[in-house]
Amino acid sequence: MPRLEPGMARIRVKDLRLRTFIGIKEEEINNKQDVLINLTILYPAVDAVRDNDIDHALNYRTITKAIISHVEGNRFTLLERLTQEILDLVMAHDSVRYAEVEVDKPHALRFAESVSITLAGHR
Predict the structure, then answer these.
(1) Nearest to 25 by CA among 95, 94, 107, 117
(2) pTM of this prediction?
(3) What are the Cα distances from residue 47, in Å, to 44, 52, 60?
(4) Contact, 37 vs 71, CB < 8 A?
(5) pLDDT per residue over 58-75, tens digit each?
(6) CA-based end-to-end distance of the chain
(7) Nearest-5° angle of CA 12, CA 15, CA 18?
(8) What is the C-alpha to C-alpha distance for residues 6 and 83, in angstroms, rounded to an integer?
C-alpha cells in the first residue's frame, strides 16, 4: 500500500458483510453465502478539508451502496472475479488514486476461518 502523503486521505471500510452466490459446488451455486469485504481508498482531500463540504469529498456511502447492490444482485464463480468487480466499482471514481479490496469467504476451507483474495489498483 502506498504511503499516505500530505493532502491525501485514507478511507477504510471494515468488515462489510454481504450475502451472495459465490463458488463452484452445487450448494454454493444454489445458496447465498456470507462474504466479508474490506476496502482501503486513497484520494486527495485538500478541498474537502479546506471547505468542509461533502461535494469536495469522496462519498464512501455512495461507493458502499454501489458495492452492496452489485454483490447482492449477481452471482460469482471465483473470489478473484468478485474482488476485481468491486475494485472496478471503486476505481470508477476519478478522485481515487489507490484502492485495495480484500474479500473473505468465511469457512471456505474446513480448518480455516476464511479464505481471502486481495487486489489493488492505482492511477
Answers:
(1) 107
(2) 0.93
(3) 8, 8, 16
(4) yes
(5) 999 999 999 999 999 999
(6) 13
(7) 120
(8) 29
